Amino acid sequence: MNINPLSNFRDSLFWDTNPRRLDVEKDYQFIIGRVLDFGNLKEWRLIKRLYDKEKIIKVSIDHVFTDPRSANFWALILSIPVNKIKCARNPSLKTPNTFSSY
């Protein structure tokens, strides 16, 4: 019997997809990114067992965090210069030009 390691994660972490369809190796960027954004301590420990530190660092550098504070937090935890993280380099939320006249 092959048990899916993602069954140890909360279903609500993958609210927009079927976790049984995720492949731990192929979908590692999505899985790690979701835990970095919305995971809890238990789920952090789970991805540390599933993936090596280099893979987690690589994903965190390229990940667009939902909150810049998360980017700062993970930069500290993973010992990455904050200016290397994509979210910290390029803010993802900009005011569209159509609203600039108000």
Task: Describe this structure as you would to a colleague.
The protein has 102 residues and is mainly alpha-helical. It has one domain. Helix content is 44%, strand content 0%. It has helices at residues 28-38, 41-50, 53-62, 68-77, 86-89. It starts with 27 loop residues before the first helix and ends in a 13-residue tail after the last helix.
Structural features:
102 residues
In helices, the fraction of residues equals: 40-55%
Radius of gyration: 16 Å
Listing every helix as H and every strand as E from the N terminus to the C terminus, the arrangement reads HHHHH
User: What is the approximate shape?
Assistant: globular
How far do the termini sit from each other? 61 Å
Number of strands: 0
Main sheet specs: none
Estimated structural class: mainly alpha
Integer count of domains: 1
Q: How many helix segments?
A: 5
Oligomer: single chain
Residue windows where pLDDT falls under 50 for at least 5 positions: none
What's the mean pLDDT score? Answer: 85
Query: In percent, how much strand structure appears in the residues?
Result: under 5%
Task: Outline the fold blueprint.
Blueprint: H1 28-38, H2 41-50, H3 53-62, H4 68-77, H5 86-89
TL;DR of this structure?
This protein has 102 residues and is an all-alpha fold.
